[in-house]
Specification:
Radius of gyration: 21 Å
Largest sheet: 4 strands, mixed
Bound molecules: ligand EPZ
Number of helices: 14
Oligomer: single chain
Protein backbone atom coordinates (compact mmCIF):
# COMPACT_ATOMS: atom_id res chain seq x y z
CA UNK A 1 0.00 0.00 0.00
CA UNK A 2 1.37 3.40 -0.92
CA UNK A 3 0.05 6.36 1.04
CA UNK A 4 0.82 9.99 0.26
CA UNK A 5 0.22 11.68 3.59
CA UNK A 6 -0.89 15.12 4.64
CA UNK A 7 -4.46 15.36 3.35
CA UNK A 8 -7.37 16.09 5.67
CA UNK A 9 -10.07 13.44 5.45
CA UNK A 10 -13.40 14.88 4.41
CA UNK A 11 -16.65 13.33 3.23
CA UNK A 12 -18.72 10.22 3.80
CA UNK A 13 -17.96 6.51 4.09
CA UNK A 14 -20.00 3.46 4.95
CA UNK A 15 -19.27 1.12 7.85
CA UNK A 16 -19.54 -2.58 6.97
CA UNK A 17 -20.79 -5.47 9.09
CA UNK A 18 -18.76 -6.54 12.13
CA UNK A 19 -16.09 -9.18 11.49
CA UNK A 20 -16.00 -10.36 15.09
CA UNK A 21 -19.79 -10.63 15.24
CA UNK A 22 -20.28 -12.41 11.92
CA UNK A 23 -17.67 -15.15 12.51
CA UNK A 24 -19.42 -16.76 15.53
CA UNK A 25 -22.85 -16.11 13.95
CA UNK A 26 -21.83 -18.10 10.85
CA UNK A 27 -21.00 -21.04 13.07
CA UNK A 28 -24.08 -20.59 15.27
CA UNK A 29 -26.16 -21.22 12.13
CA UNK A 30 -25.10 -24.89 12.44
CA UNK A 31 -27.23 -25.22 15.57
CA UNK A 32 -30.42 -25.00 13.48
CA UNK A 33 -31.92 -27.70 11.31
CA UNK A 34 -32.82 -25.29 8.49
CA UNK A 35 -30.99 -22.60 6.51
CA UNK A 36 -30.21 -19.06 7.71
CA UNK A 37 -29.48 -15.80 5.91
CA UNK A 38 -27.17 -13.28 7.57
CA UNK A 39 -27.35 -9.82 6.03
CA UNK A 40 -25.02 -6.83 6.04
CA UNK A 41 -21.94 -9.06 6.21
CA UNK A 42 -18.49 -7.75 5.24
CA UNK A 43 -16.49 -9.27 2.38
CA UNK A 44 -13.34 -10.23 4.24
CA UNK A 45 -10.70 -12.93 4.07
CA UNK A 46 -11.73 -14.27 7.50
CA UNK A 47 -15.32 -14.67 6.29
CA UNK A 48 -14.10 -16.60 3.23
CA UNK A 49 -11.98 -18.81 5.48
CA UNK A 50 -14.99 -19.48 7.72
CA UNK A 51 -17.02 -20.46 4.64
CA UNK A 52 -14.28 -23.03 3.88
CA UNK A 53 -14.42 -24.32 7.47
CA UNK A 54 -18.20 -24.79 7.18
CA UNK A 55 -17.82 -26.53 3.81
CA UNK A 56 -15.38 -29.06 5.27
CA UNK A 57 -18.15 -29.97 7.76
CA UNK A 58 -20.57 -30.71 4.91
CA UNK A 59 -22.47 -27.42 5.26
CA UNK A 60 -23.49 -25.28 2.29
CA UNK A 61 -22.29 -21.69 2.73
CA UNK A 62 -21.94 -18.82 0.27
CA UNK A 63 -21.72 -15.04 0.26
CA UNK A 64 -23.80 -13.17 -2.27
CA UNK A 65 -23.01 -9.44 -2.02
CA UNK A 66 -23.44 -8.73 1.66
CA UNK A 67 -25.81 -11.68 2.27
CA UNK A 68 -24.48 -14.92 3.68
CA UNK A 69 -26.49 -18.09 3.07
CA UNK A 70 -25.79 -21.00 5.38
CA UNK A 71 -27.59 -24.31 5.07
CA UNK A 72 -26.52 -26.85 7.71
CA UNK A 73 -28.63 -29.75 6.36
CA UNK A 74 -25.57 -31.67 5.20
CA UNK A 75 -23.71 -31.28 8.53
CA UNK A 76 -22.05 -34.62 9.24
CA UNK A 77 -18.30 -34.14 9.59
CA UNK A 78 -17.00 -32.94 12.92
CA UNK A 79 -13.37 -32.01 12.24
CA UNK A 80 -11.75 -28.59 11.70
CA UNK A 81 -8.33 -29.41 10.23
CA UNK A 82 -4.98 -27.80 11.06
CA UNK A 83 -4.70 -26.10 7.63
CA UNK A 84 -7.75 -23.94 8.30
CA UNK A 85 -7.39 -23.41 12.06
CA UNK A 86 -3.81 -22.19 11.63
CA UNK A 87 -4.97 -19.48 9.20
CA UNK A 88 -7.87 -18.40 11.39
CA UNK A 89 -8.10 -19.10 15.10
CA UNK A 90 -11.82 -18.27 15.17
CA UNK A 91 -12.28 -21.77 13.61
CA UNK A 92 -12.33 -22.98 17.25
CA UNK A 93 -15.91 -21.61 17.35
CA UNK A 94 -17.13 -24.76 15.58
CA UNK A 95 -16.55 -26.79 18.76
CA UNK A 96 -19.63 -25.56 20.63
CA UNK A 97 -22.17 -26.12 17.81
CA UNK A 98 -20.59 -29.47 16.77
CA UNK A 99 -20.76 -30.79 20.33
CA UNK A 100 -24.36 -29.67 20.63
CA UNK A 101 -25.49 -31.07 17.24
CA UNK A 102 -23.31 -34.14 16.72
CA UNK A 103 -22.04 -34.93 20.22
CA UNK A 104 -18.44 -34.72 19.08
CA UNK A 105 -15.90 -32.28 17.73
CA UNK A 106 -12.27 -32.57 16.66
CA UNK A 107 -10.46 -29.29 16.18
CA UNK A 108 -6.78 -28.62 15.63
CA UNK A 109 -5.19 -26.83 18.62
CA UNK A 110 -4.65 -23.22 17.61
CA UNK A 111 -1.00 -22.33 18.11
CA UNK A 112 0.40 -18.96 19.20
CA UNK A 113 0.19 -15.98 16.88
CA UNK A 114 1.77 -12.58 16.26
CA UNK A 115 -0.10 -10.86 19.09
CA UNK A 116 0.81 -13.48 21.69
CA UNK A 117 -0.15 -16.83 23.18
CA UNK A 118 -3.77 -17.63 22.62
CA UNK A 119 -4.89 -20.35 25.02
CA UNK A 120 -8.31 -22.04 24.77
CA UNK A 121 -8.47 -23.48 28.30
CA UNK A 122 -11.56 -21.43 29.19
CA UNK A 123 -13.47 -22.83 26.19
CA UNK A 124 -12.56 -26.37 27.23
CA UNK A 125 -13.39 -25.87 30.93
CA UNK A 126 -16.80 -24.58 29.86
CA UNK A 127 -17.48 -27.64 27.69
CA UNK A 128 -16.35 -29.95 30.53
CA UNK A 129 -18.76 -28.21 32.89
CA UNK A 130 -21.53 -28.99 30.37
CA UNK A 131 -20.55 -32.65 30.59
CA UNK A 132 -18.18 -33.05 27.63
CA UNK A 133 -15.06 -35.25 27.81
CA UNK A 134 -11.98 -33.54 26.41
CA UNK A 135 -8.80 -35.22 25.15
CA UNK A 136 -5.75 -33.68 23.49
CA UNK A 137 -4.28 -35.98 20.83
CA UNK A 138 -1.64 -35.32 18.18
CA UNK A 139 -2.23 -31.56 18.18
CA UNK A 140 -6.01 -31.96 18.07
CA UNK A 141 -8.66 -31.28 20.73
CA UNK A 142 -11.27 -34.04 20.79
CA UNK A 143 -14.50 -33.41 22.63
CA UNK A 144 -17.38 -35.83 23.07
CA UNK A 145 -20.68 -35.65 24.92
CA UNK A 146 -23.75 -37.89 24.71
CA UNK A 147 -25.99 -35.05 25.88
CA UNK A 148 -24.82 -31.68 27.16
CA UNK A 149 -26.28 -30.66 30.52
CA UNK A 150 -26.79 -27.10 31.77
CA UNK A 151 -24.31 -25.94 34.44
CA UNK A 152 -23.15 -22.93 36.45
CA UNK A 153 -19.88 -21.76 34.92
CA UNK A 154 -17.62 -19.10 36.41
CA UNK A 155 -14.97 -17.88 33.96
CA UNK A 156 -11.58 -16.96 35.44
CA UNK A 157 -11.57 -13.94 33.15
CA UNK A 158 -13.88 -12.60 30.46
CA UNK A 159 -13.09 -14.25 27.12
CA UNK A 160 -14.97 -13.35 23.95
CA UNK A 161 -14.26 -16.71 22.32
CA UNK A 162 -15.05 -18.88 25.36
CA UNK A 163 -18.26 -16.98 26.10
CA UNK A 164 -19.46 -17.35 22.48
CA UNK A 165 -18.48 -21.00 22.21
CA UNK A 166 -20.04 -22.13 25.50
CA UNK A 167 -23.15 -19.98 24.95
CA UNK A 168 -23.72 -21.69 21.58
CA UNK A 169 -23.29 -25.18 23.06
CA UNK A 170 -25.60 -24.40 26.01
CA UNK A 171 -28.51 -23.43 23.72
CA UNK A 172 -29.24 -27.12 22.98
CA UNK A 173 -28.16 -28.49 26.38
CA UNK A 174 -30.61 -30.04 28.82
CA UNK A 175 -31.55 -27.53 31.52
CA UNK A 176 -30.23 -24.09 32.39
CA UNK A 177 -26.68 -22.76 32.07
CA UNK A 178 -25.43 -19.62 33.77
CA UNK A 179 -22.23 -17.95 32.64
CA UNK A 180 -20.62 -15.77 35.30
CA UNK A 181 -17.92 -13.23 34.39
CA UNK A 182 -18.60 -13.65 30.64
CA UNK A 183 -17.42 -11.27 27.91
CA UNK A 184 -19.82 -8.32 27.52
CA UNK A 185 -18.73 -7.14 24.06
CA UNK A 186 -21.38 -5.91 21.58
CA UNK A 187 -20.42 -8.89 19.37
CA UNK A 188 -21.55 -11.27 22.15
CA UNK A 189 -24.84 -9.38 22.40
CA UNK A 190 -25.23 -9.70 18.62
CA UNK A 191 -24.53 -13.44 18.70
CA UNK A 192 -27.17 -13.82 21.43
CA UNK A 193 -29.55 -11.81 19.21
CA UNK A 194 -28.99 -14.27 16.36
CA UNK A 195 -29.40 -17.31 18.63
CA UNK A 196 -32.64 -15.88 20.04
CA UNK A 197 -33.93 -15.25 16.50
CA UNK A 198 -33.34 -19.00 15.92
CA UNK A 199 -35.43 -19.80 18.98
CA UNK A 200 -32.83 -19.94 21.78
CA UNK A 201 -33.75 -18.74 25.27
CA UNK A 202 -31.04 -16.37 26.54
CA UNK A 203 -31.11 -13.55 29.12
CA UNK A 204 -28.52 -11.14 30.43
CA UNK A 205 -26.19 -10.91 27.40
CA UNK A 206 -24.06 -7.76 27.69
CA UNK A 207 -24.09 -8.04 31.52
CA UNK A 208 -21.89 -9.97 33.97
CA UNK A 209 -24.20 -13.01 34.03
CA UNK A 210 -25.80 -14.75 31.05
CA UNK A 211 -28.56 -17.30 31.51
CA UNK A 212 -29.26 -19.85 28.77
CA UNK A 213 -32.27 -22.14 29.07
CA UNK A 214 -31.71 -25.14 26.82
CA UNK A 215 -34.26 -25.91 24.08
CA UNK A 216 -34.65 -29.10 22.05
CA UNK A 217 -34.12 -27.57 18.60
CA UNK A 218 -33.52 -24.31 16.77
CA UNK A 219 -34.76 -23.04 13.39
CA UNK A 220 -32.90 -21.19 10.65
CA UNK A 221 -33.58 -17.44 10.54
CA UNK A 222 -32.99 -14.15 8.76
CA UNK A 223 -30.72 -11.73 10.65
CA UNK A 224 -28.73 -8.55 10.07
CA UNK A 225 -25.30 -8.30 11.69
CA UNK A 226 -24.23 -5.15 13.62
CA UNK A 227 -21.86 -2.61 12.01
CA UNK A 228 -18.16 -3.00 12.78
CA UNK A 229 -17.29 -0.76 15.75
CA UNK A 230 -13.55 -1.24 15.22
CA UNK A 231 -13.76 -0.19 11.56
CA UNK A 232 -15.79 2.88 12.60
CA UNK A 233 -13.32 3.74 15.37
CA UNK A 234 -10.36 3.30 13.01
CA UNK A 235 -11.90 5.75 10.51
CA UNK A 236 -12.63 8.22 13.33
CA UNK A 237 -8.99 8.03 14.44
CA UNK A 238 -7.99 8.61 10.80
CA UNK A 239 -10.23 11.69 10.74
CA UNK A 240 -8.77 12.93 14.02
CA UNK A 241 -5.12 12.46 13.04
CA UNK A 242 -5.59 14.34 9.74
CA UNK A 243 -7.64 17.13 11.35
CA UNK A 244 -10.57 16.13 9.13
CA UNK A 245 -14.34 15.91 9.29
CA UNK A 246 -16.23 12.80 8.22
CA UNK A 247 -19.65 11.16 8.25
CA UNK A 248 -19.84 7.40 8.73
CA UNK A 249 -23.06 5.78 7.55
CA UNK A 250 -24.23 3.00 9.92
CA UNK A 251 -21.75 3.89 12.70
CA UNK A 252 -23.30 3.48 16.17
CA UNK A 253 -22.20 5.61 19.12
CA UNK A 254 -23.40 3.12 21.78
CA UNK A 255 -21.12 0.36 20.43
CA UNK A 256 -18.08 2.70 20.44
CA UNK A 257 -18.49 3.18 24.19
CA UNK A 258 -15.30 4.36 25.86
CA UNK A 259 -13.56 4.93 22.49
CA UNK A 260 -16.06 7.72 21.75
CA UNK A 261 -15.32 9.28 25.15
CA UNK A 262 -11.56 9.10 24.63
CA UNK A 263 -11.89 10.61 21.12
CA UNK A 264 -13.90 13.52 22.52
CA UNK A 265 -11.36 14.00 25.30
CA UNK A 266 -8.70 14.15 22.59
CA UNK A 267 -10.58 16.92 20.77
CA UNK A 268 -12.86 15.22 18.24
CA UNK A 269 -16.36 16.58 17.99
CA UNK A 270 -18.49 13.44 17.64
CA UNK A 271 -22.26 13.05 17.35
CA UNK A 272 -24.74 10.44 16.20
CA UNK A 273 -27.23 11.46 13.52
CA UNK A 274 -30.11 9.55 11.94
CA UNK A 275 -27.67 8.22 9.31
CA UNK A 276 -24.72 7.28 11.49
CA UNK A 277 -21.81 9.19 13.00
CA UNK A 278 -20.54 12.67 12.28
CA UNK A 279 -17.13 13.82 13.46
CA UNK A 280 -14.85 16.78 13.03
CA UNK A 281 -11.53 17.47 14.67
CA UNK A 282 -11.19 20.59 16.81
CA UNK A 283 -8.11 22.84 16.93
CA UNK A 284 -6.47 21.37 20.02
CA UNK A 285 -5.18 17.81 20.33
CA UNK A 286 -4.92 16.47 23.86
CA UNK A 287 -2.95 13.42 24.97
CA UNK A 288 -5.28 10.76 26.39
CA UNK A 289 -3.96 7.71 28.26
CA UNK A 290 -5.57 4.35 27.64
CA UNK A 291 -5.42 0.88 29.20
CA UNK A 292 -6.92 -1.99 27.23
CA UNK A 293 -9.53 -4.00 29.14
CA UNK A 294 -12.40 -6.37 28.39
CA UNK A 295 -15.58 -4.51 27.38
CA UNK A 296 -16.73 -1.94 28.53
CA UNK A 297 -13.02 -1.07 28.86
CA UNK A 298 -10.89 0.25 25.98
CA UNK A 299 -10.72 -2.44 23.24
CA UNK A 300 -7.33 -3.97 22.55
CA UNK A 301 -8.30 -3.98 18.86
CA UNK A 302 -8.00 -0.14 18.89
CA UNK A 303 -4.76 0.09 20.87
CA UNK A 304 -2.40 0.29 17.86
CA UNK A 305 -4.46 2.92 16.03
CA UNK A 306 -4.72 4.96 19.24
CA UNK A 307 -0.96 4.88 19.60
CA UNK A 308 -0.54 6.25 16.06
CA UNK A 309 -2.87 9.12 16.98
CA UNK A 310 -1.00 9.88 20.21
CA UNK A 311 2.34 9.81 18.34
CA UNK A 312 1.31 13.13 16.73
CA UNK A 313 -0.27 14.64 19.84
CA UNK A 314 1.73 17.12 21.93
CA UNK A 315 2.60 15.82 25.42
CA UNK A 316 3.20 12.36 26.80
CA UNK A 317 0.68 9.54 26.65
CA UNK A 318 0.85 6.14 28.31
CA UNK A 319 -0.75 3.25 26.41
CA UNK A 320 -1.05 0.04 28.44
CA UNK A 321 -1.94 -3.33 26.91
CA UNK A 322 -3.40 -5.90 29.32
CA UNK A 323 -5.06 -8.40 26.95
CA UNK A 324 -2.33 -9.61 24.57
CA UNK A 325 1.32 -9.83 25.70
CA UNK A 326 2.89 -9.12 22.32
CA UNK A 327 0.73 -6.46 20.75
CA UNK A 328 3.34 -3.73 20.35
CA UNK A 329 4.83 -4.83 17.02
CA UNK A 330 3.72 -1.56 15.42
CA UNK A 331 5.90 0.48 17.81
CA UNK A 332 9.20 0.02 16.00
CA UNK A 333 7.50 0.71 12.65
CA UNK A 334 5.91 3.93 13.98
CA UNK A 335 9.33 4.92 15.32
CA UNK A 336 10.73 4.45 11.80
CA UNK A 337 8.24 7.10 10.71
CA UNK A 338 9.64 9.53 13.29
CA UNK A 339 7.48 8.69 16.31
CA UNK A 340 9.04 8.69 19.78
CA UNK A 341 7.65 5.66 21.59
CA UNK A 342 9.41 3.65 24.29
CA UNK A 343 8.13 0.31 25.54
CA UNK A 344 8.24 -0.27 29.31
CA UNK A 345 6.85 -3.70 30.19
CA UNK A 346 3.25 -3.80 28.99
CA UNK A 347 3.10 -0.02 28.56
CA UNK A 348 4.27 2.24 25.80
CA UNK A 349 5.28 5.79 26.63
CA UNK A 350 4.43 7.96 23.64
CA UNK A 351 6.09 11.37 23.46
CA UNK A 352 4.20 13.35 20.85
CA UNK A 353 6.23 14.67 17.90
CA UNK A 354 5.39 17.58 15.58
CA UNK A 355 5.69 15.52 12.39
CA UNK A 356 5.75 11.96 11.16
CA UNK A 357 7.59 11.19 7.92
CA UNK A 358 6.80 8.67 5.19
CA UNK A 359 9.01 5.55 5.29
CA UNK A 360 8.98 1.94 4.16
CA UNK A 361 7.26 -0.03 6.96
CA UNK A 362 5.96 -3.55 7.46
CA UNK A 363 2.60 -4.67 8.82
CA UNK A 364 2.67 -7.52 11.36
CA UNK A 365 -1.01 -8.12 12.12
CA UNK A 366 -4.46 -6.79 11.34
CA UNK A 367 -4.68 -3.85 13.73
CA UNK A 368 -0.98 -3.00 13.42
CA UNK A 369 -1.59 -2.60 9.67
CA UNK A 370 -4.45 -0.22 10.41
CA UNK A 371 -2.22 1.81 12.75
CA UNK A 372 0.43 2.18 10.03
CA UNK A 373 -2.19 3.32 7.51
CA UNK A 374 -3.52 5.88 10.01
CA UNK A 375 -0.01 7.19 10.72
CA UNK A 376 0.81 7.30 7.00
CA UNK A 377 -2.28 9.43 6.28
CA UNK A 378 -0.85 12.16 8.51
CA UNK A 379 2.83 11.72 7.66
CA UNK A 380 4.82 14.04 5.42
CA UNK A 381 5.63 12.30 2.15
CA UNK A 382 5.05 8.80 0.94
CA UNK A 383 4.80 5.63 3.06
CA UNK A 384 5.06 2.17 1.61
CA UNK A 385 3.44 -0.50 3.79
CA UNK A 386 4.31 -4.10 2.99
CA UNK A 387 2.50 -7.30 4.11
CA UNK A 388 -0.69 -5.29 3.84
CA UNK A 389 -2.61 -8.53 3.26
CA UNK A 390 -3.12 -8.60 7.05
CA UNK A 391 -5.52 -5.70 6.54
CA UNK A 392 -7.84 -7.77 4.33
CA UNK A 393 -8.67 -10.11 7.20
CA UNK A 394 -10.67 -7.40 8.94
CA UNK A 395 -11.15 -4.27 6.81
CA UNK A 396 -13.28 -4.36 3.68
CA UNK A 397 -11.78 -2.18 0.91
CA UNK A 398 -10.23 0.20 3.43
CA UNK A 399 -8.27 1.97 0.68
CA UNK A 400 -11.49 2.65 -1.28
CA UNK A 401 -13.20 4.09 1.77
CA UNK A 402 -10.20 6.29 2.59
CA UNK A 403 -9.88 7.41 -1.05
CA UNK A 404 -13.54 8.41 -0.99
CA UNK A 405 -12.65 10.56 2.02
CA UNK A 406 -9.91 12.27 0.04
CA UNK A 407 -6.85 10.22 1.02
CA UNK A 408 -4.16 9.41 -1.54
CA UNK A 409 -3.79 5.70 -1.04
CA UNK A 410 -3.36 2.83 -3.47
CA UNK A 411 -2.50 -0.82 -3.48
CA UNK A 412 0.30 -2.05 -5.71
CA UNK A 413 1.58 -5.62 -6.24
CA UNK A 414 4.31 -6.41 -3.69
C1 LIG B 1 -11.46 -11.91 20.30
O1 LIG B 1 -10.41 -12.87 20.34
C2 LIG B 1 -11.28 -11.15 19.00
N1 LIG B 1 -11.38 -12.08 17.90
C3 LIG B 1 -9.93 -10.42 19.00
O2 LIG B 1 -9.88 -9.61 17.85
C4 LIG B 1 -9.84 -9.51 20.23
O3 LIG B 1 -8.56 -8.93 20.30
C5 LIG B 1 -10.13 -10.29 21.51
O4 LIG B 1 -11.40 -11.01 21.40
C6 LIG B 1 -10.20 -9.42 22.74
O5 LIG B 1 -11.18 -8.45 22.59
C7 LIG B 1 -12.58 -12.45 17.44
O6 LIG B 1 -13.62 -12.05 17.94
C8 LIG B 1 -12.61 -13.38 16.27
P1 LIG B 1 -10.43 -13.60 24.23
P2 LIG B 1 -10.47 -14.06 21.41
O7 LIG B 1 -10.75 -15.03 24.38
O8 LIG B 1 -11.88 -14.50 21.57
C9 LIG B 1 -7.21 -15.02 27.50
C10 LIG B 1 -8.93 -8.64 15.93
O9 LIG B 1 -7.94 -7.89 15.75
N2 LIG B 1 -7.79 -16.36 27.30
O10 LIG B 1 -11.43 -12.60 24.65
O11 LIG B 1 -9.47 -15.06 21.01
C11 LIG B 1 -6.42 -14.55 26.26
O12 LIG B 1 -5.10 -15.03 26.30
C12 LIG B 1 -8.83 -9.83 16.87
O13 LIG B 1 -10.02 -8.50 15.33
C13 LIG B 1 -7.40 -17.37 28.14
O14 LIG B 1 -6.56 -17.20 29.04
O15 LIG B 1 -9.99 -13.30 22.72
C14 LIG B 1 -6.53 -13.05 26.38
O16 LIG B 1 -5.53 -12.60 27.27
C15 LIG B 1 -7.46 -10.07 17.38
N3 LIG B 1 -7.95 -18.61 27.96
C16 LIG B 1 -7.88 -12.83 27.03
O17 LIG B 1 -8.25 -14.07 27.62
C17 LIG B 1 -8.89 -18.85 27.00
O18 LIG B 1 -9.37 -19.99 26.88
C18 LIG B 1 -9.00 -12.41 26.08
O19 LIG B 1 -9.07 -13.31 25.00
C19 LIG B 1 -9.28 -17.81 26.15
C20 LIG B 1 -8.73 -16.55 26.32
Amino acid sequence: MIVEGGRRLKGEAEIGGSKNAVLPIMVAALLAKGASVVRGTPRLRDVTTMIKVLETLGVKASQDGSDLHIDPKGLKKYEAPYDLVKTMRASIYVMGPLLARLGKARVSMPGGCAIGQRPVDLHLKGFEALGAKIALKHGYIEATAKKLKGARIIFDKPSVGATANVMMAACLAQGTTTLHNPAQEPEIVDLAGFLKRMGARIHGEGSDCIEIIGVSSLQGCDYEVIPDRIEAATLLVAAAITGGSVSLRHGRLADLGIVAEKLREHGLDLVETGRGLKASMGKRRRPVHITTMPHPGFPTDMQAQWMALMALTPGTTVVTETIWENRFMHVSELDRMGADIKIQGNSAVVSGVKKLFGAPVMASDLRASAALVVAALAAKGSTEITRIYHLDRGYERLEDKLSALGARIRRVPE
